[in-house]
Structures are given as C-alpha cells and as structure tokens.
Sequence to fold (750 residues):
Amino acid sequence: MATTVNYSASLVTRKTNSSSNGSSNSAAQEFYEAGSNNVGIICFSGMNLANKVIQEVYFTITAKKAGYGEGSTKTVYLRKANYQNSIVSGVTGSGYAGDALGTFTGHFYGNTSAYEMTGTLFNAIASYLAAGNNTFTIYNPSPSASAQGYSYNYLSWSDVVITVTYEEGVSEPSTSASSVAMGSAVTIYTNRQSTAMTHTISYWFGNTSGAIATNVGASVSWTPPLSLASQIPNATSGICTITCNTFVNGSLIGTRTCTITLTVPASVVPSISAVTVDDTNSTVKTRIAAYVKGLSKLSVAITAAGVRGSTISSYRTTLDGVTYTAASFTATKALSAAGSLTLSITVTDSRGRTATYSTTLTVLDYSYPSISRFTAERCNSGGTAAQVDGNKVRYTLTGGGSSLNSKNTLTCTVYYKLSTASAWTQAETVTPSSYAISQTNKLMSQTFDPLYSYNLKVTVADYFYSVEQIISIGTKQVLLDFLSNGNGIGIGKVAETNGYIDCGWPLKLSTPLAIAYGGTGSVNANAAIANLGGVKKAGDTMTGNLNIQGTLYPSLCLLPTNSGQTNRIVFEGSYVGAASFAAWEDSTGNNRRMLEVRTKAYASSLDNAVMVRVCDGGTWGNYRVFHEGMETVIPLSKGGTGGTSAATARSKIGANNASNLTTGTLPAARLPFKIEYGQTSVTGVSWTTVNLTAGFTATPTIIVSYAGNPTSSGIAVLKTGSESTTSFQVCMAGSSGSGTRKVNWIAIGT
Fold:
C-alpha cells in the first residue's frame, strides 16, 4: 500500500565562504551581486524515509521576486547536503553543499509552483531519501553574470514543501547460488530491511508451483524436489522463479521475485530394464542350445525408459562389428567370430542423458565339415601293398567336423561307380572318433575290374552341412592296349574310349607340339604365351603396352556371362579425340550410357570437356558434367546456384529475402531485436519488481496481462513503472485491485 507524506523545510542561505546565515528564512542560489556565490540550505526536519521504496517526489516552491522576472526559465542545481536533520551552524556554504543530484527548470519569481521530479533526477533523489537523508542544498559552483549584474539563475525561495509517495521497503529475495541441483539444498535470503518483516516464499517452475515456507525471517533453506525434473523432459536445466511476499504486522506490503537455475542431477539417467537376445536360427537354438559362429543370427530387443518425464530418443547397439539404431532388430549377418563376444548398448533420452548395457556372449567355434585328404589306389587282395593290376582298392582319408559341445553329428560315407556310370553305389561308412576321421590304406570290400576305370566319392556331413570329394581309379597299367574295334588306343592303361588315345602316364614329347597340331610350339609358359600372342593368367603382371588398333573406334569389350546376361562394358577411343567408358544393355548399342572425355582440340571449352552421352532406343543426347574448372556457372535448373559469388548465389536462390522462409524456426539471436518473457505475481496495488536478463541496450517496450481466466472480483487495470534496461515494476492500478494474481509479461527492445 502506497503512503504519501508532506514535509515543510527550514531554509537558510550562506555564502560559499561564510558560515553566517545571509538569510534565515529563505534559500537562495547563485548571486545578486558579483563577487560572491550563495548556497541555499533546505532541511526537512523529522523526515526519515530510510529503506522506503520511493515512488513519487514533488517539490512545492514559493519563490521571492529575485533575479529575472516570472517569464524567465531558471535552472535549479539540486545537490546533497553534508549535514542532516537540522541546520548546523559554523559551516560555510561550500562546506554544506554535497554532491550533485541533478537539475530541473522552472519559473521562480513571486510565484508558487509544484514540480515533479522525473528521470535520473528522481532516481538520484529517491536513492538519497531511501538512505535516510532529509536535507538538500541548491548550489551552482560556476554561475554566469547577466547584463543586470545578477546571475542568470539567481533565485530565492521563501517556502519549500516536499511531497513523497512511498511504499515500505519490500524485501528483495536472492539465493546462495545461481543454480542448484534438484534434491540439493539452497539458501533463499529475503534481504529484509527490518526485523519486523516476515515472508512467505513460493516457487514457480515450468507449469507447476508450490509453497516453500511461511513466516520466514532472514533466510530459509530449500531443497527443490527431484519431481520437478518432469517439468523439463527435454532439458537438463530450467529457470525457477522464487516469489517472496513481505508482511509487516501481518499486512502484505509487497512482492518481489528472483530466479535460480534448477539442474537435473547427473544421476538422473534413462534406464535399460531388459535386453533380450535370441537366436533366429531355430535349428541351432533347438539342437545346440548355444550361439554358433557362422550359423547363429541374433535378434535383440531392448526395453528402455526415460526418467522424470524424459523419453528415449535414440538407441545404439554394437554387435559383432556392426552398429544398429533400433530398439529391436535382427542382425544383418551370422556371427563371424568365436569365443567371447561383447554386446554393447547405449540409449539416449530427450535430455541427452545416456544409459549403457554390456554383456558378453559365448560363441562356439564352428567350421564346415572338412576333407583334408582323400586318395585311393589299386592294391593286392589283402590291401597290404599297391598293385597296379589288382582288382582291390584301398584308400586313405582324413577329415573332421565341429563338436559344438558334443551336440553336433558327424557321418562319413564312401561311394563308388564306373567312371562311365551316372549312379553311385554306397561302399561303406566310416565312424568318426571325437569328430575326427582318419583312415590309412583302408581296404574296400568291393571288387574293381582292372579293365575299367572307377570313381570314388566320400561325403562328410554334420547336422547342418555336408562336403564331398571325388577321385578316380584308373584301369590296370599296361604298356599298350587297343580297343577291340581298333578305334582306341591306351598307353600305360587299358583303352576304354572310342576315337581317343588314353594316356595313363604323363606325356613327354621329344619335340614341342606345334601350334598347327594343337600345341604351343614351346617348352615353357612364357614362350608359349609369346608364340600364341596371349596375355598371362589373372594375377600375373602384363608387360608392355596393349595396343588395340581400329580405323574409327578401337575398343575393348567386357562380356559378363552369368545367367545369360546381355550387358557389356565397352572402353572406346574415337578418331575425333575422345575416350569413353560405356555400359551397353545388349550388343546393338542402341541403349547405352557413356562417360566421354574430350581433348582440347575436340572441345576447347572446359564446359564440354567431360560429357555424359546417352543413347535411348537409338536416339542420342549429350549432357554436361559439372566440375570446378567450368567457365560457365551451373544454373539453378541443373542443381547449381547460378552465381559466381556468395552474394549473387544468395540472390539467385532467394536466400536474401526473408519472405522466402516458410518452414523451420528462426533462432531468437537472428532477430533484429531482443525479446524476453515470463510470468510473475502481483498483489493488489503493491509493486512487483521483475528483473530482465536479455541484455537490452535501451529501455524495452513492456506488455503485461493477467494469466489464465482470473475472476473479476478485485481485478483492476495493470500498470507498469520504473522501466529500465534491467527491470520494471508492475501492479494493479486504482483502489479496486486486491488479491494475488498471476501476470504474463513480455519485453521487446534492442
């Protein structure tokens, strides 16, 4: 509640260099006669406004007819006084005058007028009075004489009344720290002006509010509850408004606020409550009941949740060298390593906080069934020695499989057939020992006619895969044999095939077989390649240059043969000075796409140095390939900016026109003005101070309105005051305002 008081002043005038009163009933400024200077002393005995909030100051002044007439405007130089409460004797005028408070102007000549103190002068006077002072001086240390002899601002006051409107000094709350973690204590200081003041303290955070304490004196300790974190699900900190209501003798005299940053403790992180790992290979899962290298493909399901209002924003799982970003997924490959495999999971919530989970999976090693050795030969009837014309066969075999905790199976079967037959006959099975197969010179029970060739096959199979190997058993060895029809010869073996010479021994010619007879005409590989004009096999190094000559378009064609493909890849040179690499759909070349590089003689401009040429259905089209060395800028229609400088590019793409912004959010820092907004509380006509932190350089425009839908009872028009770059005040205007209301406010400025 505002209070208005009036005080009448005691007035004297002293020369700057004299302690005697020049006048005991008036206060004069400057001089009437050159050579001296007056100091007017104005003392409001009994006035004590210490710790009051000064809202208005008026001086009602009755002036004598002194100096220039009533129509002239004079400047009053208002100053502090070095002595208070009463007029002290024995002090010169200059010794009485204190620091300058400011100036104001008026008409001072035989009249009475009231003057409202405003602006910086009001602020200086208000601070001076709130410090408990009650005496002023009027004094200009550098007066100027007029043509009439007296100074321009010479004046003499015979009566001065000060009218002050003030409120009790409402406590301005503060905190022991600028920020505090939820769940930790912070001290709230009321900074009260008097021990007679008590306070109620409350908070407003996000969309919730609550009481902190009542009947608070100088301070109170508050622990912000951890539950407040739910008000900021997407941030780790937020601004909390502390409201302090000040009471004197049970009556509310005003409300002030301060802010503190509440942080979510580092311990508040999302949780991973469950991780389910499953093997999608049902056969492995059922049969082996363990993870198996090369066979198991895992699925992972993560159950995670945010905390205190946050939500899970991302998942990151690392498994077997691959990273996955879904809450549930199936691995893209079977497990590639055996032993201990680490599964690592990180979840991130909407606050950016993370939770991790790690576990070690045991993976059994697995290799496909193997046959490392399989040989066979004709032997004697007991299998004790080799016999080239024997009708018995013995074989040597080694192989094996993976145990998988002894839950895998392993079988080995040997088959045989005539080399000319299509069907196999099972000869016998071999029993593995500890998943290893080993047979040395194992005699087969079957009889193998020495006049015919045979094939042997061994199959090794486990529960999942099988492998096989086929070898041949030739006829008995003879020096020379002829088919009965005379159409076949066998050398070192029995003749078996019409129209062929069968050799059972390695063939060595005394003279290289000429090219004309199907040979190479040489005794070594290099000479053979040279004689044939060929290149070396894959993996070898080709020496020299490969020259392909042609009149118009010499070319190299690559022909893939898989599944009857008709595609081909063509490297081509052109007589006009171009080299191309093309993909053809078929041999006609009517549907192809080609990258062409041109010589300077063929295409002098770099714009056309590299081209994509397209032939669709026999119709050709040329397209430029854009690159740094081009002379012509890339137009918008081709994905460029159409400009050669940043400014031109912005203009071309419309980035220099804010009206083209149609989506997204423009950051506040990019706006040509500053903006700050919030919510506070007002109680009746008592002023509430709101502090501004946006860094305004000039006093902003303030807009206030009631929050929500307040009841009409006790509602009055809102008004603001004491607006500056760092704060403003707001209260209800008029006598009808009562009660405590939430008020929304916004400040806009530069």
Remarks:
- The CA atoms of residues 183 and 226 lie 5 Å apart.
